[in-house]
Every structure is written in structure tokens, then in C-alpha cells.
């Protein structure tokens, strides 16, 4: 009996997806812990100016995009865009090879 490479490929893709989601949750956890730490430091050193907000906003954008990517919600570079670009590059390569052989 031949091994089912398609099933193995699907398993590895699922495994990769789970790792991406796990990595996002780790990123989110670290973000929350550091945000709390920054808030405490900010309130202890200069409570009149909440500078920690700028750190949280900057890093928060990164966490947001990481989450969108991990859960497959990509408003800009989604799967359809990726597939279209791959086909485009393959066609360009095929055309350039045809030009070379002429």
C-alpha cells in the first residue's frame, strides 16, 4: 500500500497552522505582561504623563497584524492574492524561458 502523501501534507499544514496560533497567543501574553509592567513603571515614575500608551499603541498594531495572520484574516495579502501572484511569477518565468530558447 502506497503512503498517502496528500494526507501527510494536510497534517503538516494543520500542524503549521496550530504553531502559528500558538505563537500568536505567546506574543499576546508577553504583550499583556509587558503592558502591565510599563503601566506600573509609568505610574510610579511620572503619573502626570502616560507615556506607556505610545508603547502599547505601537506594539499593539504588531500584535493585531500577527493575530490577523495567525487566524487567516488578511485584509491585504490573502490566499487569493498569494495564488494570483504565484501564477503570475510562474507565467513570467515560463515566458522568459521561451524567450531564451528562441
Automatic annotation (TrEMBL):
The keyword Transmembrane helix applies. Residues 13-91 form the 2TM domain. The chain crosses the membrane at residues 24-45, 51-77. InterPro entries: 2TM_dom. This is 2TM domain-containing protein. It comes from Flavobacterium saccharophilum. Keywords: Membrane, Transmembrane, Transmembrane helix.
Amino acid at each position: 500500500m502506497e503512503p498517502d502523501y496528500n494526507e501527510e501534507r494536510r497534517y503538516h499544514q494543520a500542524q503549521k497552522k496550530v504553531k502559528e496560533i500558538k505563537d500568536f497567543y505567546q506574543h499576546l501574553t508577553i504583550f499583556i505582561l509587558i503592558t502591565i509592567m510599563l503601566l506600573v513603571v509609568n505610574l510610579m515614575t511620572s503619573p502626570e504623563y502616560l507615556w506607556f500608551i505610545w508603547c502599547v499603541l505601537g506594539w499593539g498594531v504588531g500584535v493585531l497584524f500577527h493575530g490577523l495572520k495567525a487566524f487567516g484574516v488578511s485584509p491585504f495579502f490573502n490566499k487569493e492574492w498569494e495564488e494570483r501572484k504565484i501564477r503570475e511569477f510562474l507565467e513570467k518565468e515560463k515566458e522568459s524561458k521561451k524567450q531564451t530558447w528562441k
